[in-house]
Amino acid sequence: MNMSKSYILAGLAGTALLSAIALTVPFPQFLQAALFLLLGLVLTVLTAAYVKNLDTLNMQGRIISALAEFHAQSSANQAVQVVESTLGRLFPQTPLYRYPPREEDEAMPWGWEVAQEVTSQSLARGQAIMLSRSQGETALPAGVENLAVLPVGGRYQALILANLPAHISRRNLQLVLATLHNHLQVVQSRIDRQKQEQELWEELLGAAVTAMESHDPVFCGHARRVARMSRLIGQRLGMSGEELHQLVGAAWLHDLGRWAAPDPESPELDHASCGAQTITESLTEVRSAVCHHHERYDGSGYPLGLKYTEIPLAARIIAVADVYDALTSLEGETERCEHQAALGVIKKSIGTQFDPLVVVAFEEVAPELEETAMDPE
């Protein structure tokens, strides 16, 4: 029994007691007893209203505490995970389902047909919906008293709460679902806008690099392919959206030094160092990755002889993608390797030239990399 019902029953019991006392006292004291009766009823109503409002405030407080984490996410899937964990904390005793389900997800006892139907309704309305057998709103399957559906978009179309406890008011549930849905839309809009800006930045960067590569037919398309492969490897390694953005930018620019005018004061500079000097200092991560993409994992590379994790992760990724593309696309027709042969060459250099973790990720995305090799442009 929830707290509000307990208070109401206690108030009613007190009121009944006062009424009983009123019936046993002489009539002249009846008015005094009636006042006690009225006071008991008023206190009961006020207590019930207070507890109800307190439940609402507590629920609002829990949602507010989750919003900071919610808006800090850099991908839609991460934001949905925060929504899922928030619902789990708010309604710990209520089964929560994703639709469409993952292979490892527990199956709905009444089947996924219902989930598909209510998800379609929620997406069509563009808002969360609540369905209850007691309200006669829909024909729910046996064993289901109510459903709450929150449309989330992305990989999962909806999150579904089933058989919420009766003490959770419809008003509070509607408040929770509407708040989470509205903030999810804000986060997804921000992520979509950032993605569009990054895509535009990459297109402009790609156009400039492609123009530079056109002066040397051997390198035409090289930066584009390295950027594409680097993104795949970075995604496999779980890099954040911002880290991927910096990685792809560095991959596009990794050979910038080949076309930059030589520094008259340092004519011996290698192309990696020369390219890094060309990049503005505000792009710290990009500049560092360009500078160190020819370092070797065992410390025998250049320009600084860094080793292991001293080498920036982006540089370690670009190093693998760069060599793979050189083997499959830049060599002459007779020396050029097929995908499997190039993969074998790289695997032989694990621990010496290449980071083992990066090579593992490289091998895991091998099917996509093979497609990249088959489509050099």
The CATH architecture term of the largest domain is: Orthogonal Bundle
Percentage of residues in DSSP E strands: 5-15%
Number of strands: 4
User: What coarse outline follows from CA principal-axis ratios?
Assistant: elongated
> Number of DSSP helices?
13
CATH topology of the largest domain: Hypothetical protein af1432
Oligomer state equals single chain
Number of domains: 3
Looking at this structure, what is the CATH superfamily of the largest domain? Hypothetical protein af1432
Give the averaged pLDDT, no decimals.
79
What letter string, H or E per element, gives the SSE order? HHHEHEEEHHHHHHHHH
Main beta-sheet annotation: 4 strands, antiparallel
Global Rg: 32 Å
Query: How far is it from the N-terminal to the C-terminal residue, by CA?
Result: 67 Å
Can you give keywords for this protein?
13 helices, elongated, Beta-Lactamase, Hypothetical protein af1432, single chain, mainly alpha, disordered C terminus, 377 residues, 60% helix
Reconstruct the topology from this structure.
Blueprint: H1 3-24, H2 30-71, H3 76-90, E1 96-99, H4 112-125, E2 129-132, E3 146-151, E4 158-162, H5 170-213, H6 222-236, H7 241-253, H8 271-278, H9 284-291, H10 313-330, H11 339-348, H12 356-364, H13 366-374
Antiparallel strand pairs: 1-4, 2-3, 3-4
Helix pairs in contact: 1-2, 2-3, 2-5, 3-5, 5-7, 6-7, 6-10, 6-12, 6-13, 7-9, 7-10, 8-9, 9-10, 10-11
